[in-house]
Amino acid sequence: MLQSLETRSAWTANDAPVSDVETIVLSHEAVNDEYRHLVLRAGRPATLAAPGQFFHLLCPASGQDKPYLRRPMSTYKADPEAGTLEFLYKIAGLGTRALTTLKPGDSFRVLGPLGVGFTLDDSWRSIVVLGRGVGLATLAPLAEAAARKGIGVTAILSARRPDLVMSAERFAAIGADVRPVLDSDGSSAPENVRAILGSLAREGRADAIFTCGSNRLFRLAKDFATEQGIAGQVALEQQMACGLGMCFCCVRKFEVDGELVDKRVCWDGPVFDLKEATSW
Amino acid sequence: MVTAASSSAAPVSLGVEVGGLRLQNPVMPASGTFAEGLARVMDLNRLGAFVTKTITREFRAGNPVPRVCETTEGLINSIGIPSKGLDYFRDNVVPFYRAYSPPLVVSISAPTVDGFASMARDLTIPGVAAIEANISCPNIEEDGRSFAMEPRLTEAVTAAMRRATALPLWVKLTPNTGDIVAVARAAEAGGADAVVVANTILAMRIDTETFRPKLGNVLGGLSGPAVKPIALRMVYQCADKLAIPVIGCGGIATAEDAVEFMLAGARAVQVGTTTFVRPMAMIEIIDGLAAFCARRGIADVNALVGAVVDGNAAPEEAEALL
């Protein structure tokens, strides 16, 4: 079962206020053709971001790309000791295209940390994270937080090709059981992922499941959590304007007490209980 | 931070009287761009007033997504006034703002004249300082035409609210009308204490890859810096013809924008879409207004109101000050 609201807040809410931080770009590297890794000097309180929380990025104007609104992006890594904040993103449109022009030394505003992140229950001994593509970036800090609490992690990393498996080394570094599944060899097929999940359940290694980045994997995770009667959480995306729960543009449908209701991804999420989240 | 106190000049008075309310400064949020969440970013006690997102009497789900799309220097939205209803608002939202000192202005919408009047009546409660009537919505008694498109409907709905509440009554006008001055005068005749000029401008965008509209509701309202010169023109036209104050709204992003609206005749300003991009914008504008006045040797921000020099708007004051 998911924890009570109080416990959830204790883990996810930062007492530090949200701030619009002027960060400095430390490095900005192409991971491959599609993904970029951005490292910022951000200091506190931004670097106190909890796993699953996000930042609202003021993307620079560049050539034809003049994004007016900020772009939400989940935290890839927040290190309060080093004072650094990291993002791993896929170039997907005008905002992220403009973002690629940032160079080391540039200053760059990020608002956050925002939203409700993942919840980890002290009673869990072993969890499964199941993600695809850039969604794995969101799950990496969660896996590290779980490891710090002594919770075992199995990471099922889905991607089109081996070179697009994101962050495998970060999951491996915390001692996670890393299981890449690929479109290129067919191992990412739902029946195979379902078989992996089934064996983890039989081994008693699935006290909870976490997912991000794929509607197909979301449905698998939701079905699995329901069958096994275990807790599950999903980190969702939606187009946002304010990022602070004010404008109501980032709503999605959730099942609450048998009814479909709108919730704001930026304010009520972006991490939601799998039981309430619906397919997109 | 730049404040009046840091200047060599005497401190600048930023207080204004707007439609029955005394505000510590002329800067407040525009409806729909402000909620409790902003308290996590700024000290809400700095603001001139709070203006809530529009509420309706009953629960409303709002429009299908996508609810916003970007455009050059602006945003088109069709959120659809999702609302948890009047009872929820009274029991949960009003108490939140009691912890703060700026007055709470509640934006309301209804599909009928009686609906507006009964909401104004039912919100005449402790903790609510004024009503802002969002009369840009469709009137189901008039084939869905917006109240604020026509002087006759505007006067009728304003007069009905005027009879229903003793609270200060602000009426927010739509720019989507042929003669906004006539509509503003109708609001004044109906008993409004102030008009807010103006709401968003009807607009749309189409995705050239999919050939589909970029908004779930097809049409939406344009806001942001893109609309500023149009809203400014409307404030200028209305302020010249009304005895009641005009509150300027439309694309205000900087202190200079706020000064421009006040010169055009606005007694106060609402800052909206800019907050989505720069969440501290309202605070920056308050500090910037004080700094502007200090730099120009203006002791009282009210001296800016209508001080545009064109022979129509208070020329003798303008010459003395500028």
UniProtKB/TrEMBL annotation, chain A:
Keyword terms, alphabetized: 2Fe-2S, Electron transport, FAD, Flavoprotein, Iron, Iron-sulfur, Metal-binding, Transport
Gene Ontology BP, a term: pyrimidine nucleotide biosynthetic process
Domain of life: Bacteria
Residues covered by the FAD-binding FR-type domain: 18-120
GO terms of molecular function: 2 iron, 2 sulfur cluster binding; flavin adenine dinucleotide binding; metal ion binding; oxidoreductase activity
Cofactor note: Binds 1 FAD per subunit.
Sequence positions that bind FAD: 71-74, 95-96
Required cofactor(s): [2Fe-2S] cluster; FAD
Binding site for [2Fe-2S] cluster: 242, 247, 250, 266
Cited InterPro entries: Cyt_c3_hydrogenase_gsu (IPR012165), Dihydroorotate_DH_ele_sf (IPR037117), Dihydroorotate_DH_Fe-S-bd (IPR019480), FAD-bd_FR_type (IPR017927), FNR_nucleotide-bd (IPR039261), PyrK_electron_transfer (IPR050353), Riboflavin_synthase-like_b-brl (IPR017938)
Family to which the UniProt record says this protein belongs: Belongs to the PyrK family.
Protein name, UniProt field: Dihydroorotate dehydrogenase electron transfer subunit
Organism: Chelatococcus composti
From TrEMBL, chain B:
GO cellular component: cytoplasm
Binding-site list for FMN: 31, 53-54, 134, 172, 224, 250-251, 272-273
Record's catalysed reaction(s): (S)-dihydroorotate + A = orotate + AH2
Protein name: Dihydroorotate dehydrogenase
GO molecular function: dihydroorotate dehydrogenase activity
The organism's taxonomic lineage, starting at the top: Bacteria, Pseudomonadati, Pseudomonadota, Alphaproteobacteria, Hyphomicrobiales
Domain of life from the UniProt record: Bacteria
Organism: Chelatococcus composti
InterPro entries on file: Aldolase_TIM (IPR013785), DHO_dehydrogenase (IPR050074), DHOD_1B (IPR033888), Dihydroorotate_DH_1 (IPR024920), Dihydroorotate_DH_1_2 (IPR012135), Dihydroorotate_DH_cat (IPR005720), Dihydroorotate_DH_CS (IPR001295), Dihydroorotate_DH_I (IPR049622)
Class of this enzyme: oxidoreductase
Active site annotation, chain numbering: 137 (nucleophile)
Dihydroorotate dehydrogenase catalytic domain boundaries: 14-291
Iron-sulfur among keywords: no
Cofactor binding remark: Binds 1 FMN per subunit.
Protein's cellular compartments: Cytoplasm
Pathway: Pyrimidine metabolism; UMP biosynthesis via de novo pathway
Protein family (similarity comment): Belongs to the dihydroorotate dehydrogenase family. Type 1 subfamily.
Enzyme Commission (EC) number: 1.3.-.-
